[in-house]
Amino acid sequence: MSILNGKIEQLLSLAVATVAAGVMPAPMEHDPDRDAALRSLAAVAGQQGWSMEALRAFAGPQADLLFPGGEAELLEAWSDLCDRDMADAMCETDEPRLSGRVRAALLYRLPADEGRRTAAAKGMSLLLTPQGQVVFRRAWMRSVNALWQAAQDDSAGVAYVTKRLTLGNIYALSFLYWLARGQDAAAMAAFVDRQLALVLRFGRFRAKLAAGRSAAPAGAAAL
């Protein structure tokens, strides 16, 4: 399991680095029949896996025709569906603070749902293949972007990229924690709170540092 965790960490590092490019992949196709098939399979994927055989068994004998890209497309589409479910849930959020909305979005995206968690863990073994890694990076970038959009952040330019890069790191750490111990909702929320607090403290430190530099007298030594 430790070897698998190490591979997942490497994959997450590559995914976060891809966010720095600032170019989002194209949106996925949305179709009610695809969504229904995904929900049917996701409910049992933790035990049955993400194979096309399981898809046909639990979503109908013709369901594989909805996903011509095979298992990799199944997982990419499921990630997109989870993003959309998170965005729908966030419509009910009236949290005034951006940090609070980011927190809520993360916890909606990584719920204390054993079926969701085991399905994700089962899917990671498929996404560690060369083809799967490309799919994972695309799905990861969409998820990070969806989290920011659900949190109602409208940054542009450099801030658009840096905020998504920061959130990408938080989401990666939270995702690893969720896979290992996400069944405990209170512990999961506390972990997310710690990650956000670190970012906020670092942001305040940078602001103070910048203010100190702008107030320094001419000729003062720079840090």
Task: Tell me the name of the CATH homologous superfamily.
Answer: Tetracycline Repressor, domain 2
- Evaluate the radius of gyration: 19 Å
Largest sheet: none
Number of structural units classed as domains:
1
Query: Which CATH class?
Result: Mainly Alpha
Question: Can you write the helix and strand succession as a string?
Answer: HHHHHHHHHH
Distance linking N and C termini: 44 Å
Number of strands: 0
Low-confidence stretches: 205-209, 218-223
What would the average pLDDT be, to the nearest integer? 86
Domain COQ9 C-terminal: 140-202
Protein name: RpsU-divergently transcribed protein
Organism: Acetobacter vaccinii
Pfam families: COQ9 (PF08511)
Explain this structure.
The structure is a single chain. With about 220 residues, the chain is mainly alpha-helical. The protein has a single domain, classed as Orthogonal Bundle (Tetracycline Repressor, domain 2), CATH 1.10.357.10. Helix content is about 75%, strand content about 0%. It is built from ten helices and no strands. It has helices at about 1-20, 30-40, 45-50, 50-60, 70-90, 100-110, 115-125, 130-150, 155-180, 185-215. α5 packs across α6. The longest helix has about 30 residues, at about 185-215. The chain is globular, with a radius of gyration of 19 Å. Residues about 205-210 and about 220-223 have low confidence and may be disordered.
